[in-house]
Amino acid sequence: MNLKPSISDYTETEFMDFIKHIYFVNGSFDDDVLNPLLHHFEAIIEHPAGTDLIYWPEVKGLDAPEQVVRIIKEWREANGKPGFKAE
Asked: Which one, of 62, 58, 80, 59, lies nearest residue 8 by Cα?
């Protein structure tokens, strides 16, 4: 997986693929593979909930990759942060 320096370097589709990769790695590999992905996720999303968006969402059912992307996108827009690169 090619990790990019900021969220605005990802298209929404690429970021969705990144999150799906995290879910896959979480169920298939050791923490030494997962942890760098989670650290990168937290660093580029800048959302105060960080990885809680994946592991402990505020509302049950909002941990699906599509929901995580939607929450991040809406939060970034509401807080004047740059969004995803155009598709």
From this structure: 80
